[in-house]
Amino acid sequence: MAAGFWSDQERAREVVKELKTLKGWVEPAVELERRINDLRGLAELLEEEPDPGMEEELSKEVTAVGERLAARAQSMLQGPTTSATRCSRSTRAPAAPSRRTGPRC
Known about the structure:
By secondary structure, this protein is mainly alpha-helical. 75% of the residues lie in helices and 7% in strands. A two-stranded antiparallel ribbon has the order 1-2.
């Protein structure tokens, strides 16, 4: 980023915070897409060469991806959260804040 970017510390913090928020939305979606594509490839291989053990693994992974996708959809419906609201929704007590990362849940 340009040197002028860092001269306004408050604005730089806002931009970096927004970048982290957007990455938090995009990266899990990219990972889910990758897993789905891997599953498609495995399913195609299993059509050509059936393997009961691999079919069971495929079934388990499809279930796991489906659950993750449902969780992401629920998260998207709730909207962006801050670390404080994530902690309040957590079923466990928040950990002590870290100087580098803020509160952990």
